[in-house]
Amino acid sequence: MKLVFASLAFAAALGLASSAAAQEMAPPGGSYQKVSALVTLPDFLPGLGQLYVDPATLPAGPFLAYDHDGRLVSTIYMIPIEDLNPDKSFDDLASPGGAVDHVDVYFNAGHPGVEKPHAHVVLWHVSDESAVAQ
Amino acid sequence: MLSRRGLLGIGGVTIAGPLLRWPAALAGETVEIEMRGRPDGSLVWFDPVGALVRPGGSVRWTNRDPGNAHTSTAYHPANEDHPPRIPEGARPWDSGYLLPDQSFVMIPEVPGVYDYYCVPHEYAGMVGRLVVAEEGASTGAAGGIVPAGRSAEHPAAGRGDSAAGARAGTPIKPADRLRGLPALRALTRPRARPPSSSIPLRLYRVRGTPRR
Predict the structure, then answer these.
(1) Residue B192 at interface with chain A, using a CB cutoff of 8 Å
(2) From the list A38, A112, A117, which residue is nearest B123 (CB)?
(3) CB-based contact A59 B206, cutoff 8 Å
(4) What residue in B sits closest to A107 (Cα-Cα)?
(5) Domain B4-135+173-198, classified CATH 3.40.470.10, yes or no
(6) pLDDT in tens, B80-127
(7) SS3 sequence of B155-202
(8) Domains in chain A, start-ordered, CATH in brackets?
(9) Predicted ipTM beyond 0.95
(10) Does pLDDT of B23 surpass 60?
């Protein structure tokens, strides 16, 4: 039994690592599409980077953000403020980019694609944010 | 209902080059309004929020927000069934999404008060007001313009859509730019929208050419 559990855990870990590796460089695979091709937004957003998202997951995301060299820097969730209430929760959100260095949470007034005021929850996979500052 | 493209055709023009094709704009001054926002997107606004436009003049909105897209869109039923907040007989406009450094020009043809908003940021209170009038005129209760020296009553009075800056008899200040009209935020009324989980992606073509 222990052996089976250990095997499953190893396989799960391997799967996560593989998934993270698949997203390390732009463009990510799967259903992710470039946000600037889906809605009218600049291709590179100062402070965030170049964003990709699976449209089926809107508005929350996750959005994957890449720097100018196509390296993954963060995973972003955009949670509408009105959804932060007693009747709604966001559980088991994935971190498809792998290990998280630090997290930023801040208010955003809205933008095409996620027009309602919302919170940006940024899971940074790098310690230095300057690569996407401009 | 008019399409966005149709609205552009009758209400304004994106900057694709000099304004030589629009002699009316050359005949008068152009009021410049910038679309701005904090780097993190936590605040967005029109600067200035209110402006006085001389008859024959034009208004140019330019997106100076490097991380966001904005619109200038008239409060009018033709635009997402919004309430009418432009003078009777005036034609509504909608710039469509403007990316950073893109501009849109509108030439108001009817004196009066024009209220407008930014489509993706109306929820955030990004609204503005234009007053089209000669210096010394005053505004009627519903935003109509009364020439200097005449009564401030207006045929449309009582329509109930007046706000600060558009009250009966209020003289229009000689300054070209009326900054800080706090009551404009009261114009921002959340619209009935589908649940957030079903909000479709909005796919609009951007009109205009970046001005570098």
Answers:
(1) no
(2) A117
(3) no
(4) B42
(5) no
(6) 999 999 999 999 999 999 999 999 999 999 999 999 999 999 999 999
(7) CCCCCCCCCCCCCCCEECCCCCEECCCHHHHHHCCCCCCCCHHHCCCC
(8) 2-132 (3.30.200.270)
(9) no
(10) no
